[in-house]
């Protein structure tokens, strides 16, 4: 056997092992149940962006006591939801 053939076989086995581990990990992630929602009163992660319709200031909200928080107020008006941010 030539040296290059041995290298290609080892390279192929390494790629196969990587794909196997990745596939098994993905299949296991489908079977794990979703975590229970946190108790009331704890902060939850949200990603929302609001804009003041009067002066134009923007605000990014990252933590809130519930998943659908009321809009904050600025210039004595409720701010408008621009768009949820998906990261």
Structure description:
- The protein is of the alpha+beta class and 87 residues long.
- It has one helix spanning 3-31, and strands spanning 44-51, 58-64, 73-74, 77-78, 80-84.
- The strands form two sheets. The chain has a three-stranded antiparallel beta sheet with strand order 2-1-5, with no helix packed on it.
Protein traits:
87 residues; alpha+beta; Rubrerythrin, domain 2; 2 domains; 3-stranded antiparallel sheet; two-stranded antiparallel ribbon; 1 helix; 33% helix
In a few lines, what is going on in this structure?
By secondary structure, the chain is α+β, with helices and mostly antiparallel strands.
> Helix share of residues?
25-40%
Structural class: alpha+beta
Number of helices: 1
Summarize the biggest pleated sheet.
3 strands, antiparallel
Q: Which word captures the global form?
A: elongated
Using the coordinates above, name the CATH class of the largest domain: Mainly Beta
Mean pLDDT: 86
Low-confidence stretches: none
Any chance you could write out the topology, listing elements then pairs?
Blueprint: H1 3-31, E1 44-51, E2 58-64, E3 73-74, E4 77-78, E5 80-84
Antiparallel strand pairs: 1-2, 1-5, 3-4
């Amino acid at each position: 056997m030539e040296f290059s053939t041995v290298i290609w076989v080892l390279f192929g086995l390494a790629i196969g092992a990587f794909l196997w581990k990745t596939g098994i990990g993905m299949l296991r992630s489908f079977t794990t149940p979703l975590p229970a929602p946190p108790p009331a009163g704890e902060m939850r992660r949200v990603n929302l962006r609001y804009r003041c319709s009067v002066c134009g200031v923007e605000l990014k909200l990252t933590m809130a006591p519930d998943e659908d928080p009321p809009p904050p107020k600025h210039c004595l008006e409720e701010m408008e939801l621009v768009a949820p941010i998906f990261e």
